[in-house]
Amino acid sequence: MNHPTALFLLAAKQAEIKALQQLSTNCLLVTSISELVHQLQRERGISNIFLASGCELFALQRQQQLLQSVQAEQQLRTALNKQYLQGEEPCHSSRLLSGISLALQGVDHLAGLREQIQQQKIAPLQATEAYSRLIAAWLAVVLESADLACDAGITRFLVALFNLLQTKEYAGQERAWGAMGLASGQLTTELAERLLLLQQAQQHSAAVFLEFATVEQQQQWHQLDQSTAAKQLRQLRTMIQQLSGTAAPVPAVSDLWYQFATERMDEMHLLQAGLTAQLQQLTSATVETAQQKLKQHQHKLTELSELTGLPTSSGLTLLIDPSMPGLYGASVMPAGQAEPTVQAPSRSFYQLLSEQAQHIRQMQTELTDARRAISEQKLIDRAKLLLMQYKKLTEEQAYRQLQQSAMKQQCRISDVADAVVKALNPVKTSP
């Protein structure tokens, strides 16, 4: 069928398929990023112990971990080149590509950081901060990929995955700070507060993960939370809070802390691997379903063309459909009610058009709900940045201020972030 109306209907379906294929590409990227982030988190933790011990501990483990990190980096670079620089369909998101370039710039300078660590020319805290900035940059790319998703089901999966990754990153930072404090004997009140803040941040991200996770994923998380490593870590957390303000090195406890924190993070990584595998299956199935729907449309239009010659020859059209909006103030009747008697073929063609329009509207409604968590996360990030700029706070201090305000006002942290953004970044009006 070569009628323009029918061709536009097919073009809409083809555009949806292309968008889903680009989304599938982005999901492959997210999988590669997730693995690199995991290896960088392990490298960060091992490097902390290596530095804090004066190169005496974890020297061999560090060399082995560097090989794992470099391998994950190479796999990610290969995927990026294949999917975004050499792919048939160019990526049209400047935000995503900009985020990738920023994160890659950090990876480009990893060799220098590793050499500083090897030569003991950098403090454990500085090394931790450097790794954490790089990991945050890659997590921002994951968040952007979720925001670009055009399918509600896949978006929910990406939101769940991002918040699991964010929970795991907060857990990694908690591991680093706790290990440094216990090994050095500097269990200050400030350190105890920092650890408590990171634990609360984990709870927040985990709650969002559970909101968007499947029932099976929720069960896996609850099992993880009741694992031996998680229970032992909770006991050590309590001990640190009780010992805060003391200055006695407890290296044996430091080793236990690192061990249990690492076991818990490895369990999170297993859950993460399951999510990324399911994500790939979901994207493939979604693309396949859309392609099958396109074939069904093509077959139906061919049948209608043979019956009527033209799809718009007579019958029900947009002009007389009482279920479509039009005159301001006029009532809109539900579809299927008070329809005029029309020829079956014409009704079938208009039904194809209506179904496609309804499919897009439904998809947008579901996407809006799924993207709520993404918008809230970006709002929190924006509020932190403004507090850092205007009040000269560190990122940790900015987040702590948001968190404390939310607890005091008994509201969500995103509500506080919204108020901060409106107060510190008012809309500028033209003179």
Automatic annotation (TrEMBL):
For this protein, the record's PROSITE patterns field holds: ANTAR
User: Transmembrane stretches, by residue range?
Assistant: none
Which species is this UniProt entry from? Rheinheimera mesophila
Q: Give all residue intervals belonging to the ANTAR domain.
A: 360-421
Could you tell me one molecular function GO term of this UniProt entry?
RNA binding
Against InterPro entries, the record matches this protein to: ANTAR (IPR005561), CheY-like_superfamily (IPR011006), Nitrate/nitrite_sensing (IPR013587), WH-like_DNA-bd_sf (IPR036388)
Q: What is this protein called?
A: ANTAR domain-containing protein
